[in-house]
Amino acid sequence: MGLGTAGSDSVKDESDARIESSRRLSSIDLSKSSDPEFWMVSLLYPCLYGILTNVMVAVFNLIAIKVNEFENHRTQSQYMNRLVLKVISFRFVAVFTTLYYYAFFSNLDTDASYFRMVR
Predict the structure, then answer these.
(1) Helices (H) and strands (E) in the chain, counts
(2) Total domain count for the chain?
(3) 7 is a domain residue
(4) What is the pTM assigned to this prediction?
C-alpha cells in the first residue's frame, strides 16, 4: 500500500513540474509589444532570412550548374556526382551561415541590441 502512494506522489510531482514549466513558458513579456524593434526581431528578420536563404540556394544552384558544365566531365555519372557535391556544399553554406555568425561573431558587437530578444 505504501508503494501505491509513493508512485502517485511522484506522478503528482511530475504533473506539478509540468504545470510550472508551462506557466513559465506561457508568461510572455507583453510590455515590449509596442516596441518596433521587438517586432523587427520577431517577424521581419526571420522572414528576410527565409526569403534570402531560398534566393541564395537558387543562385548557388545556378553557379553549381555553370561551374559543373565548365569542368566538362567524361561521363554522365561523374557529372551528376560532382553536381550533387557542389549543390550540397553550396546549400550548406547558404543555410548555416547565419548560425555561424550567431555562434562566433555576434558577441563581438555588444551595441547591436537588435540581434537579441532580451536586453
Answers:
(1) 4, 0
(2) 1
(3) no
(4) 0.53
